[in-house]
Amino acid sequence: MQKNVGNSFGKQERLFLTKQIEQLFSEGRSVTSFPLRIQYLLVPASDQSPSKVLFSVPKKRFKRAVKRNLIRRKMREAFRLNKQQLYSVVPQGKQLLAAVVYINNEVADYQSVEKAVIKAFDKLKARLEECNI
Prior knowledge:
- By secondary structure, the chain is of the alpha+beta class.
- Helix content is 42%, strand content 22%.
- The chain has three helices and four strands; from the N terminus they run αβββαβα.
- α2 packs across α3 (110-132).
- Belongs to the RnpA family.
């Protein structure tokens, strides 16, 4: 498994298969750090990437696609820059499926999104380390 990925966020790190998404939301657990909720599930590794992630902003809360895309860009950037701390705790031979869902009703600035990502990663790391022991 490739642990030394760098700061890119390529196709191999995106979660897009319907079966995996359904499995994630039916069997996964969640961690909340306002304004984000991360739904996650550890599965046997299917490829080189230590994780597969999707980003979601509900249409119910933000009618305009421009705002949804802006929030999604902020979440992707915060994830991309801070993913190394999460990858360090994913066990060998496993892959982390994750969905990052925006749960706020207002557009947040980048700093608050990045703080939420870091805080959620800390909670998620604690849970993953607890499961690995």
